[in-house]
Records
---
Amino acid sequence: MVHAVNGVSLEIRPGEIFGIIGETGSGKSVLGLSIPGLLPGNCEVGGSIVFKGTDLLRVDRKRLRHWRGSEIAFIPQNPATSLNPVLTIGYQVAEAIARFRKMQRRKAIAAQAAGLLRDLRMPAPEQKLKSYPFQLSGGMKQRVLAAIGLAGQPSLLIADEPTKGLDAIVRNQVVDMLHRMAQATGAAMLVITHDLHVAEALCDRVGVMYAGQLVEEGRAGDIFQAPKHPYTKGLLRSMPGRGMVPIPGTGPSLTEQAEGCAFYARCGERRPVCMSLRPALYASAGTPEQDGGVDPACAASGSDAAGSANAIDRTCAANEFNAAYVTKAADAMHAVKVRCFLYDSDSRSE
């Protein structure tokens, strides 16, 4: 059984940009694909994905298909392969507008398409509608995907690696575009990226994933200025300008679930208790709304001595916090709550 994502619990609030960072293979994209139900058929999802008070795992496929695009939009990570090469940009954007905005008049649809591209600062938008994908730069293609995503005026926008393969100048333009999209629409936004500079510049809050687990969550400024989890510290030390020191070793196998911390073999702060204790995220003080986040899933961090009764009690309290948080998010009309367990059913052990 392959646990691509294991026990992740998070909330995205209206108008907020929430970033998911981590190494390749940590489960970021799988998490993003699970929300609109875009995972392959051999994947199974357990837990709950609560959107506007409704668990998406409990609704029928017809209703979920209706919500895709109109309420939940997904911007894939590779614009070069996501756009149809034999159809014009105008046709592809217009198709999304006609479907999600229920418009039929061609001139009105074309005007809406040009308006979307103009809002995203596409140069000469009317002319670009007549172009084919191969005639556009990487940054322009990314704007087209964003326009398609915004066509349905969604409440939640998921952007998977929006700056992948782009040079520094275009990357900054895309970051600015996403900022303006969030401010103009008021939609919640989930940004999945391995580019730590993008996450720092763009996101309000950040979650750090390792081996399919969420190991730290908090305000972006806190995460990048004062990381608490050893993995987050190592991830930031690998950035240019922070020493570019790689994290030793390789990630664990997702087919074998370790009893203790998944980062134990690579951690420079590990302690004996880490071999047997897998701590969960817990509230450091008050509620997440009051303190802006939760403390890391690490028995070795913080002021408590590892292995002490206090550390173990604190870890147990984390489970109660997560359960209460799920209930609270389910009552929030515009909150998006994810708490899921994903695995490849072809690899599931009997």
---
Amino acid sequence: MAAAIGMGGLAACGDSAGPEAGGVTTEDLQGIEDDLGALEERVGVLEDAPADAGASVDPTAEGEAGVVEDEAGVFDDAQSLIGQDATVSAAVSEVITSSDVGSAFRIGNETGEPIAVVSASPPAQLETDDVVRVSGTVVQVQRDTFEQDFGIAADELFDDPDVFFDTFDGEVAMAADRVEVLQEQTGN
């Protein structure tokens, strides 16, 4: 009899009353699966689209400011995007610093506000007027959360962090997960 009660108690220990705290739910997995499906569809469309061999790659050709893609609206209203992931392509308007531990620069377009980008892994030979694609999180620059937000300590990235914070503290920036040079500037 005691063995039967013991077995019943053990069987009850294995039963779950629901998802564990911090566990992944079916809805979470479905959301990820839906996002992945949408991304695969977008990649398929891009892969199937024919390249325009006659298209100009000169950022100043035909009066354009280069490849500017800003579907999220980072240049128009970055403040409303704080905490969100975004991808934007534009020309580098200023290289603030570039070293072996990271980089900081501004990108912008002709209609909106330029935005600072901080990356813990710099692209090679980044220069003004290079066209880049940046993916990352939109954040507000704050001295006390800089390392947490950008993944690098300000004193490791900047020769004089105070100068950076005097200019950028409180402004919106992108904490870059990825920086890809789409087109290098010409003339050097």
---
Amino acid sequence: MTSNNLLPATVLKRKAVVYVRHSTPGQVQNNLESQRRQYELVDVARRWGFRDVDVIDDDLGRTASGAVDRPGFERLVSGLCTGKIGAVLCLDASRLSRNGRDWHHLLELCGLVEARVIDLDGVYDPCRPNDRLLLGMKGSISEFEWGILRTRMLDAARAKARRGEPRLSVPIGYIWHRDYGLGYDPDLRVQEAIRLIFARFRELGSARQVLISLTADNFHFPRPSDGRKTVSFDWVPIRYRSVISMTKNPFYAGVYVYGKSEKRTEIVDGRARKSYGHSKPFATWDVLLQDHHEGYIDWDEFERNQRLIAVNAFGQKGGIKSGRGGRALLAGLLTCGRCGRRLGVVYSGRPPGHPYYRCERINQMLAKPRCMTFG
């Protein structure tokens, strides 16, 4: 078939679009040769006879699996709908899409406006059954390849996790030593701060009471200076989040854990939206290796702490509930006019059992005075 049949003059008068994409920011920084080859498709388009060539590279660093929005791909689809695009150029099918929904939607639009798809292997007309079949196979292979790669990587990660080998980021109180691997932070002040929190929880049995007690003692807790790496610290007033996260973290019990959170998928506007970091019950964790490293507490104490936290978490989803005989009609419905947090209910005063509404959150989190109380 001649080039005139593949690319008639009516198509060449329109614009050609080169779509450039990499899946991750790391690939954008390191896979420079692949980027160069993708940008060279501009010359390929001109050799085929297109004078007006545009490059869409808005999706550098974005996956094509369908899990995230791709503004560049959306711009390409919008341009096809106008009928002003005569050809879409890509290095291979995986650059355009790794999921069948986007791929076949793109082919359908190209067929409607008689636009061509061009890669390094040739020119394809989605209006022709044979070309459409071949393009469909390329898209299916791209999607299948992504599934295989992802499964292989996850299986390898789980295999290493079952041996306790992955070098994880560690919480405050631990550090990776050059000579003997994972161990306590050599800063004794950091160690003493962590041991004190666990000792107070052992004594008081409540994360909030630990916060109040330590705040009264003007206790300061280490926080990474850069927000993440536990190399240098700023010592700041203790917060509720620090107390509760430490008591819930099995790492402090000398336990290596893998798969303690999960992702969830929901359909929003016809597309899959994934969210990560949803905690799972520790009985369902993928890997749990006790005595993996030095612990500040033992596993039995960790389990006791979790039972106490569950009993205390009356207001949390999944917390243990019991009838309290409350008479407040607006419990859970009012918010603070100053800070916007939800008001809690307490019963006191005269007559006995009279409900009062008050803003507790800032007092609970930072042990500071409450915003308001009324009732």
---
Amino acid sequence: MTSKTVLPQAVILLVLVTSHVWAAKYYGKHKEVCKPWSFNVAVVVEGCQTRTVLLNQCAGTCFTEHSFSGKSCKCCKPVKKSAVKVPLHCKDKESESPYRYNHSMEQHEECSCFQC
């Protein structure tokens, strides 16, 4: 093996080691923040009064990496969901009689980072 072939291999090895050391330091200092956050959501159903409710939805930061060996994309997604009943005040179209309607919605209870 000549010095001409050793030098490019040494540079590639140095770059790979350096990128993994940097990634370990970066991931050690920064945390993935993927969790349920409360958002105001407008519930709109025809014939009913619009109501704003507070629901949990997954949001946050997940690590994405693009390296020489490939790329790894992660997204914040729900692990556990629950059903929520939102009571709405409505009126019948023909008789205009008022009634209550329980509108079913979904909220996120637990979140985690998964492959996109």
